Give the backbone structure.
Amino acid sequence: MNASGAPTSGAAAASSGGGAGLPATGTLIGQDGADAVAAVSVRGLVKRYREVEAVRGIDFDVAVGETFGFLGPNGAGKSTTINMLCTLARPSAGSARVAGHDVARERDQVRRNIGLVFQDTTLDAYLTAEQNLRLHAELYGVPRDLVGGRMRQVLEMVGLWERRKALVSVYSGGMKRRLEIARGLLHSPRVLFLDEPTVGLDPQTRSSIWSYVRELKANEEITIFLTTHYMDEAEYCDRIAIMDNGRIIVLDTPQALKASVGKDRVQIHTEDDQRAIAALRERFGIEATVAEGAVTFGVAEGEQFVPRLFSELGLPIRGVSVTRPSLDDVFMSYTGTTIRDAESSSSNERTRAFARMMSR
Amino acid sequence: MATRARTEASGAAAGAQLQARVPELARVRVPAGGTRGELRAIKVVWKRELIRFVRDPLRILTSLMQPFLFLFVLGTGLSRIASAGTHGVNLRTFVYPGVLCMAVMFTAMFSAASLVWDREFGFLREMMVAPVRRSSLVLGKCLGGATVAGFQGVIVLCLAGLVGVPYAPGLIAAVFGLQLLLAFTITAFGVMVAARISQIQSFMALMQMAIMPMFFLSGALFPVSGLPRWLEVLNRLDPLTYAVDPMRRAVFAHLNISNGARRALDPGVTWWGWHVPGLVAAAVVALLGLAMLLVAIFEFSRAQ
């Protein structure tokens, strides 16, 4: 599955220090033993918008060639972090280096080495796909004799080569996103930032976007830094940082994160959730909460527990589900809430709206 | 699990296909900026304005509407009551230099307005994160606006024969040069305003509020001598005065009219009794344009 072994092992070595505690030097040792400068290196990064602290001091490193995911609900500070890393917002405190350059002091150097795909489209709808790419190539100073070949390559990758002469205004949402990915890759960036690359897209386009990501890993030496709030997508990353309320709560490989939870998640539907929670505490010593409209708790060996539950709870149960640990559970065990519930909480919405307003 | 394996397989297949089609990886090394990079950026932003302009014939027509109304409807309708004071010169001929200015003003304003749209539709972000100076982007935009507005001006210039103005090469060159200059200055003004305004409605309202008084005060519709004191002061403060005046001088230099008519209709702008030469007036427009360009560059460089 993974064609580029070196980056993953580098990432594993880095994360073995225990979650977010990475080597402070900012360099990682690659498989061949040579020193490689980290693709992204962040120290004590803070972003304040007047009274709101959107990012509250984060540290992490991303190895060259790694696919690194930022996971968290809307308003957690993911987009603000990406904006700082791609020089669109100035850090209030701390420092960050991308492709070996400081994001505050060497903005043009950083910009030359990154590709960006934002949540919202940044295409010129009045131009054709080809004109959009040519414009990008000119802005980034891609050597003229290489533009044609490279453009064909990226457009074929996203399956838009045949449609290159069409105006972007007639493209569907999925085609626009694919074109943006192609454009982000046109100047062969060393780090590609994808901010919620699949949000609002149909499942088919989502899966094709993930296949481009894997293809990139196989064919180009590129580091991919993405944010998502889809748990299933985070599984594709080499490492994930879970972010909530402007802080990185935990950072590790998806496998390690799931292993750290250990328990299965059980959700039961009852007539009276409060009595069920009380009964669970009394009879089994289990602390349960209401999440997504069901009484939810974690228990080892969930399948064996269910028969006991039915016989000993003393309350009618209308339905039950047992799930193996997923990243949802990881998120829940570290934050005490599911990602969907976290998204609907009003304080996050406010922070997000405010951050958007300020970043205009 | 099975679906995931399948998508992985198809991803790998697509990868193999890609490599088969593009044998050598056309990996690009982006060179480290420099003057050439900035020039390419200026040129491509300029070119984008042109592409968008020719794609939108409706815009070409709508921005000609107002100049045509002033030239033919107002110029014809008022000609009888004005005939006493024009010394036999057609009123349409008199307002023609003002209309030549007006034609480029509206187009230049719309060019600057597209910056507000670019922000709304996100494209501004694509430009702002590019590894080029903001000054290159702003300059490209202003040059693009000047070019398309200059083209618009040429359409009105072609009508010279209809209002009794000869097609003399020297006249055409002078008028076109002044139009480009004015268009550049108006675009710079619009870009400077657009840096601070994110709503297209507010931008348009503000531009209308600026452009209409500028046009009426400029002397496009009346001779600038012997005005009441308050109007004279406002007229001399209006930047457009310094575009209309040399324009009218250029046009009137090629008309075969009496000296009395020339003195009455083309008295020329004066500063405390001193006749401002055409080149000085044009320099005023150019300096204003440059100053607003610098403000626009400053504002966009500061924006994150």
